[in-house]
Amino acid sequence: MVDKESANGASGAPNAPAAPGADSAPGASGAPGTPAAGTSQEADPAAPAPKRVRRGAIVAAVIVAVVLVAGIGAWVWHEQPSFCNAICHSPMDKYVETYGAGDPGMLVTQHAAAGDTCLSCHEAEFATQVSEAMAWVSDSYPMDEATGMLATGKEFATEEFCARSGCHSMDEVVAGTWGFEGNDEKYNPHSSHQDYALECGDCHKVHEKSTLVCNECHALTAPEGWEAPNE
Predict the structure, then answer these.
(1) Phi, psi of 202, deg, nearest 5
(2) Where are the beta strands (DSSP E) in 27-174?
(3) Which pTM was predicted?
(4) Alpha-carbon distance 212 to 190, whole Å?
(5) Cis peptide before 81 (omega within 30 of 0)
(6) Which residue ranges make up each domain of the chain?
(7) Cα–Cα distance measured from residue 37 to residue 30, given in angstroms and rounded to the nearest whole number
(8) Nearest to 209 by CA among 98, 124, 128
(9) What is the mean pLDDT of each run of 10 residues along the chain (231 residues)?
(10) What's 156-230's CATH class?
C-alpha cells in the first residue's frame, strides 16, 4: 500500500515551489512596479529638466546680455566726437580736432564747454546719415582745400537753425550785445544797419576763426580770438 503523504509529494502538490523567475517575467501580471502590457507610463511633471535644456537657456541669456551691453555702448560712443572720425577721417578729422582744441575764437569751444557734443547740433536723423554715408563711400562730398573742411559749412549756421527752440533766442542775443566787448553802447552786431542781411555763419565760425564783419567799416573791439575781416 502506498503512503498518502508519499503520493501527495509525487503528484506535484500545491506546496511545490514555482519555477525560478516565473513571477518576474516581463509583462507578468501582478509583478510589483511593472506596468501591464499595453499601458503607458507618464513622466513625472515634478522631475527636473534635462541639463542640456538648462545649459541652452543660460547660453541664450548670456548672448542676449552681451548684445544688449554692446548696443548700449555703441550708442553712447555714437554720441561722442571721437565716433565721427573713427572711420570717416576725411572730412571729419578737422572737426574733431577743433572740438578739443580750446581755441576761444571758435564757437565749438564754447559749445564743448557747455557740454554740447556733435549731435547737439548735427542731429542723427536716419535719412541724413544714409545720404552722408553714401556721399562718403562715393567720395562725392565738396571739400574746401584751404580749410580741410566741407565747403557747405557756411550754409549750416543760419538764424533759422541757430535760433530754433532749445538753442539760442535772438531776442536775448540782441538784448545782451549792446556795447559788446566794451564798445560804445550804440553798437550791436545783432541789430545793425545791415537789417539782418547777415547770417550767423558770416561772423560766427564753429570750427574756424570767427570774424567780426562789422570791422569791414568800423574799428570795434572784437571778442577774444576773433579775426578781422580779410585777415
Answers:
(1) -70, -30
(2) 143-144, 149-150
(3) 0.58
(4) 11
(5) no
(6) 56-145, 156-230
(7) 11
(8) 98
(9) 45 47 46 51 57 74 83 68 68 85 93 87 79 79 78 75 89 94 94 81 90 92 89 59
(10) mainly alpha
